[in-house]
């Protein structure tokens, strides 16, 4: 049984994240989608809301995924949960520059846990949660970037066209 973990802020989950979750089925038997609580203060959605949105968008994956929230160091959580590798999406060179030092530090702390990068599909390579939040903040439509459930939740916070 190969258990992977897909950690992130997921504020909010986008079509890009969902594609990484879907493709993770090719490389692990179970996937823990782990919402980082650390960044709660600067997030648009609470960790509970972020988890609920992921769960709501991931019905098709059934038991393959488990959605959790975690605090503290990722590698410690991985050890607790006997996770063998961390999965992260890579969209661009700037993602690599952000991801590579994190992977290196995680490897120093826990050499037994590998980080595996999945490069994003062209269709989702320009989508980021940060841009979704920015567009939403202008009360503009984000439905091309996120699933309907997420777009609906965003519209509650930022009604269209105000
Ligand atoms: O979606 P994000 O915000 O890019 O995800 C970053 C995340 C949550 C994966 C990263 O900040 C993280 O692992 N945080 C947990 C704390 C930790 O382990 N920090 C050391 C990483 S080298």
Characterize the structure shown.
The protein is α/β, with parallel strands linked by helices. The protein is built from six helices and five strands, in the order E-H-E-H-E-H-E-H-E-H-H. Strands 3-2-1-4-5 form a five-stranded parallel beta sheet, with helices on both faces. Helix 1 links the parallel strand 1 and strand 2. The longest helix has 17 residues. The mean pLDDT is 95. 4'-phosphopantetheine binds next to strand 1 and helix 4.
Which characteristics define this entry?
single chain, 162 residues, alpha/beta, five-stranded parallel sheet, 6 helices, 19% strand, globular, binds 4'-phosphopantetheine
User: How many strand segments?
Assistant: 5
- Secondary-structure element order, as H and E? EHEHEHEHEHH
Q: Termini, distance in Å?
A: 50 Å
Mean pLDDT: 95
Strand order of the largest sheet: 3-2-1-4-5
Low-pLDDT ranges: none
Beta-strand residue fraction: 15-25%
Provide the gyration radius in Å.
Answer: 16 Å
In DSSP terms (H or I, runs of 4 or more residues), the helix count works out at: 6
Profile the largest sheet: 5 strands, parallel
